[in-house]
Amino acid sequence: MVPATGAPRVDTVRIEAAALSILAELGVACRLPPESAACCRAVGIDVGAACVRFPPGVVPTLVGSAPRRFTHLARNADRKLEVSAALATFGPAYSARHIWTEATRMPLDAASASEFAALAEAQACLGYGASALHLDVPDLTAPDRLIRFALSTDRPLLASDRGPFRPETLIAAAQAATRDAAKPAGPHCSLMLIATVDGALIFDDIFVETLVAASASRQGLVIAPTLLIGANAPARGDELLVRFAAETLAGLALAQALCPGQPVALGATISDISLRNGLPLACTADAIAALGGCAELARHWDFAYYAIGPATNAKGYDALATAETARWLTAAHFLGANAIVGPIGAVDLDDGVSVDKLIIDAETASNVAIPSRPVSPDPAAALLQQGHGGYALGTPATRARARSMRLGPLDDNQLFESWVAAGSPVLQQRLTAAAANARTAPTVSTEDHAAVLAAIGGLAAATARHHVRSGLTDLASSIYGQALREAFGFKG
């Protein structure tokens, strides 16, 4: 609850000061390549063999030089995003190994991934289209599929650093897909790379690889800690926010040291942890409170904040899955997240997606992101004219609103009798009809495909990488198992 005095919910100055003291005294564990280390030393960062420390004053100077506004390009110029703390956009689930069809869970293959991507592209609320940059399909045609998916969306492209493709391959595909887009004069990028931080104050080799690759090509970065409350992050809210602040400030500073003016944003994946079995809990009160605190810190620094799933821990597409995601979408939007990525269409944390749930979640997002209403020059005039017991029906304002009103494909705007006469259609029937009406994915010409393949060059042949983890469940289980072994002396 916001204090009655109107004071901020988070003491951002105190959190920031604590984070800066940690970065100066303890620093962040990471191993930088020699050239990157030299760039960082040149701006005052203390770079060791396995740790980076930030003397007082270095981080505020570097973070202050980062652009707060930049353009995220798309193949279709009308779809480009102006990324800033005023951005408001939703995105579909971007990583999955399974797809749910009602109560059936199946491996996600290239065909079902294409269907999911095409349906996501058709949702009006989404700022991001789905592509192979989002979807993790373990098949042997991944490089070719990456190219086709990069060309199949008109929208900006977003990628996770924990997927099967190395950053250089992702960047090359995105740059080739947007090669015909008009390049603005200011900061811009063809791809936003989510640079994930799994361990507390540890930038692992994949994070460093992503950071260096994005800096070399001036692509966008989302510095995104994974905060498992009570596991890899402290259980108290202010202490958890100090970890978020320390890692994001360190990531921002390193990015600007390697590439001054590089496009950057903040993000986080937040989940609670069950002390019974160590598994993640989605959308708990503590997780939502932490999300609000992270968004408030991002506003304090004037960076765009990307709220990354999880959306639900439901084992299947059911009412719980829909309710948890609706709670997360609504809370994230009204707590100040500028972009919400991952929950839409997600089932079973980040291990599965559902076409039916995609449609329902997109409807929720569309209703949450209500377009701003025109402001009246005299707010009292309408009610004064209407008088006691008058009606607004038929007024110019009501007619204008009726013309702009959006009735979603799942809304049931029928009387009981007319609903029965129509055959008593249930939600599943309306979902099937909505999916059938969605447009199909655009075809990709052979020439475009060949051009992107040539642009990627030899990168596609060496695109595979070892998965550090396939989802939050794997990460949480690993942390829980290691903690038990250390606490009780178990071996192996």
Describe the structure.
Mean pLDDT is 83; it is low at 1-7. Helix 5 packs parallel to helix 6 (167-177). This protein has helices spanning 12-25, 34-42, 58-64, 110-122, 142-152, 167-177, 205-217, 237-258, 285-301, 319-334, 355-368, 381-386, 396-404, 416-421, 427-437, 446-456, 472-488; strands at 28-29, 46-47, 51-53, 70-72, 81-83, 89-92, 98-101, 104-107, 157-160, 188-189, 191-197, 220-229, 264-273, 280-281, 305-308, 339-344, 346-347, 352-354. It is of the alpha/beta class and 492 residues long. It is globular, with a radius of gyration of 23 Å. Helices cover 42% and strands 15% of the residues.
Count the DSSP helices.
Answer: 17
Mean pLDDT: 83
Question: What is the first-to-last residue Cα distance?
Answer: 45 Å
Helicity level: 40-55%
Q: Main β-sheet, in a few words?
A: 8 strands, mixed
Regions with little confidence, pLDDT below 50 for 5+ residues: 1-7
The beta-strand count equals: 18
General shape: globular
Strand content range: 15-25%
SSE-based structural type? alpha/beta
**What Rg do the Cα atoms give?**
23 Å
